[in-house]
Amino acid sequence: MNTIRLLTAALLISTGLLAQQKRTTSLLDLGVGVGNNQQLVSASWVHYWGIGKKQNFKLGVGARFNSSLATDKYYETADARLTSGKTGPGVLFAENIPANIDSFFVGKPQINALNISFNSEYQFSPKWSAGINIDVIGFSFGAQKTGIYIHNGSTSLVQAKPTAFDLLLVSDNDLGSLNSEFFIRYKVDKKWSIRAGTSFLFNEYRTNTKVQVQNGIENDRFRHKSLYGLIALSYHF
């Protein structure tokens, strides 16, 4: 009797462990984005946890490297206190104040970022799924660039580097360079899948001096928001 109980307990434990193992999946991903005079390459690792009985819905965390290149881009005032005059969650619905927004023009911008990402995905069928993800926190780096600061029609040459610290907050409260994606995935086989969608990228430069002074607020951060068409290849393990 004790032997039967031990075997039953061992079977239940083994079944539970197998189920737990089935709940988690990982993947490596390489994506390419193309936009208006701009290109984006991203490489990421994501670990997913299945949610629910059928585990069709998955939540995950990951690490993503983004490298963006562009030509002739205008970066606009990034400080939310100037762009909309608001901070906090309300900035998401606030209108921009054009008089407070200056520009920083860069001929050949290039910014790299390494961020932790939050990921979600829903499996519609064995072959098809859809998902969204967004960078949460990390850091950016790249070469110093000489650009043109534009204020009320006047211009001056200034130098800038990518904002070093990246942090997801709310809309214009965000800091640094952050990537987010919406995609549809097609599973080719158990190991490989392809996905296509859109990538929305915030890129940010910080000038060497606080070149903008507006309403008593000094600003050295300038942001460009870009939309890319995305295609990617994923390896599941």
How many strand segments? 15
Helix content range of the residues, please?
Answer: 10-25%
CATH architecture type: Beta Barrel
The SS-based structural class is mainly beta
Low-confidence stretches: 1-21
Nearest-angstrom radius of gyration?
23 Å
H/E series, N to C?
HEEEEHEEEEEEEEEEE
Biggest sheet descriptor: 13 strands, antiparallel
Strand content: over 45%
CATH topology annotation: Porin
Tell me, rounded to a whole number, the average pLDDT.
Answer: 91
Structure at a glance:
This protein has 237 residues and is mostly beta strands. The chain contains 2 helices and 15 strands.
Protein described:
The chain has 237 residues and is mainly beta. It has a single domain (25-236), classed as Beta Barrel (Porin). Helix content is 11%, strand content 61%. The chain is built from 2 helices and 15 strands. It has helices at 2-22, 80-83, and strands at residues 24-35, 38-51, 57-70, 73-77, 103-106, 110-123, 128-141, 145-151, 154-162, 165-167, 178-187, 192-207, 212-214, 217-219, 221-236. The strands form 2 sheets. Strands 1, 2, 3, 4, 5, 6, 7, 8, 9, 10, 11, 12 and 15 form a 13-stranded antiparallel beta sheet that branches. The chain is elongated, with a radius of gyration of 23 Å. The two termini are 41 Å apart.
